[in-house]
Amino acid sequence: ILCVTVYRLPKQSAIFIQEFSEFLSILHNSFERIILAGDFNLHIDNPSDPFSKEFLNILSYMDFSQHVTQPTHSRGHTLDLVITYGLSTSVSSVIDLAVSDHYCVFFSITSFIQLEPSVRTVRKRHLTPEVAA
């Protein structure tokens, strides 16, 4: 399992979506099970926000799942995310520990998702002694 922590500065940048998409593509092609967790500073709870909508579309397109559905910030937004690929994950609670304006997200991996094995073609040849020599 590859675990990645993320912190994105609050300033929204159009290039972030492109860079994050490229990053996910690299991870997707290199690892079978991935957890990305951290402060993405995106208002995922706002479905009308085009930036958040594009972010979620990229996750969906690459078969990543975003699991946090509750507010994770003192102003009522969902900024802190748990994103997985190849893992079944459950967010058990989001708790204000009063140490930050962000809340603590508790989650657990409930199971591994069985991924389809990659197709591999093997061709056999029978070599005669003359060819093998």
UniProtKB/TrEMBL annotation:
Q: Name one GO molecular function term.
A: catalytic activity
Family annotation (InterPro entries): Endo/exonu/phosph_ase_sf, Endo/exonuclease/phosphatase
What Pfam families does the annotation carry? Answer: Exo_endo_phos_2 (PF14529)
Task: State the superkingdom.
Answer: Eukaryota
Endonuclease/exonuclease/phosphatase domain residues = 2-105
Kindly give the Gene3D superfamilies that the UniProt entry links to this protein: Endonuclease/exonuclease/phosphatase (3.60.10.10)
| Name the record gives this protein | Endonuclease/exonuclease/phosphatase domain-containing protein
Q: What is the lineage of its organism?
A: Eukaryota, Metazoa, Chordata, Craniata, Vertebrata
